[in-house]
Write a structure and sequence with these properties.
By secondary structure, this protein is an all-alpha fold. It contains 3 helices and no strands. Helix 1 runs antiparallel to helix 2 and helix 2 packs antiparallel against helix 3. The relative contact order is 0.14.
Length: 112
């Protein structure tokens, strides 16, 4: 015997959980950046750029997650959801920038 009840859709809890995960990611990135800026040995330009870049990435992740939550919640409400290419591209660029800055900082430290 099969159950004829309709499938229940997630009424928005999944987007909230995802939003909270991104907020935790941004918060931990910002905390690590502040700790790095405070306790990194040798206060050089490379240190400031690396820490500042991490803070910029944290703010970018927060902004992207807030935008994504609104879009996904609206999509879930109407039952139609399209991929958000812009948010994904922004996150990829931010991670690449942070990786490049970290690599530059390591190279500067190795050359000393």
């Amino acid at each position: 015997m099969t159950d004829a009840s309709p499938v229940r859709l997630d009424e928005g809890l999944q987007p909230e959980r995802t939003e909270l995960a991104w907020v935790r990611t941004a918060s931990s990135t910002a905390a690590i950046a502040v700790i790095y800026l405070r306790f990194a040995p040798g206060h050089s330009i490379a240190t400031a750029v690396a820490g500042g870049s991490a803070l910029v990435v944290a703010v970018g992740v927060l902004a992207s997650s807030a935008r994504r939550l609104g879009r996904v919640s609206a999509g879930v409400a109407v039952g139609r959801l399209a991929p958000d290419v812009l948010s994904n591209a922004v996150l990829v660029v931010l991670v690449l920038v942070l990786t490049g800055v970290a690599g530059f900082g390591v190279a500067v430290d190795l050359l000393r």
